[in-house]
């Protein structure tokens, strides 16, 4: 978090404390528990929680949006990899399975050729048939539910939110009967071509850091979240990190130079930090300077590797999502990616500034884009503004409305706001 944002929240928080409890501390005025988060700033969350409890008007609308979303998740799930009708090539239903989103059958599906092979790629055009394998969609629903429910509990103290988040996590990651194996050997398979690909790791890396932050928040004393749950999640995280570092799929994804590589680093660094390996996390974030930023960010702020896509605005924002979250992880370990300048003169903030005109409607996006959605950049612009970027800060009032409403002040880390993934 930027020093400016931190200082402002500390000052307001101190004022609220003084107003609430000049003589004796009430329950709402006591220091909020500070979660050991890996992307979100735990101190900022604790201060924001204090302001929510004090009834600061600017937070009421966002809290209403957040709790409205959380209320919807109270009656959904829990989800499990055991729900899918298919079984991974391993023969073990506990293995996560997903199909490549942009690959399509090229022949009629018949008894002799049930898949319609061979498959051909249509970049940016999603094959709806992949939804028959439920792991991908249920994983996404579970990630969103856990994160939203956990934040709703943290800010309101309502036990039901935490208890439901705990059930969702326990079902997907911990319970022996329903848990997912801590590996991704069969992600984004292509029928009649390959059983799984390293590129499929993005199914998880895109949003798994939300789960790491959610468990850290639940660890501050959430009802229904037990020591066994915490131990089970820590074990799963450690095994998953080991798989990422030793598997062929992990090696392939780590070698990717575009957004896939950025998300891999973000996930690996966050897992390292969450499992107590701060030196490893520091090394990963520091290494991203030359491995990611030097390779991806041009001097004019463009991202050439993402501009080649048929949905180039989406992928420019998508890669910035990974890099801004990686920069927030860097704040936890003393590495400043925000203000690093590449040998060519590029920088993370300059690349955020590059998408601002299209995001605010000040200029058209002139690169290939099958489905332009201006709001896709909202969160990365907010993140850059928090980091002190003046262009991003000036853009905030001009950002377009996004589906589902804005909860940035309660969840200040970039999320994917448009529906495309991959």
TrEMBL record:
Coiled coil: none annotated. Transmembrane segments: none annotated. Residues 1-29 form the signal peptide. GO terms for molecular function: lyase activity. The keyword Thylakoid does not apply. Keywords: Lyase, Signal. Residues 80-365 form the Alginate lyase domain. Pfam families: Alginate_lyase. This is Alginate lyase family protein. It comes from Streptacidiphilus cavernicola.
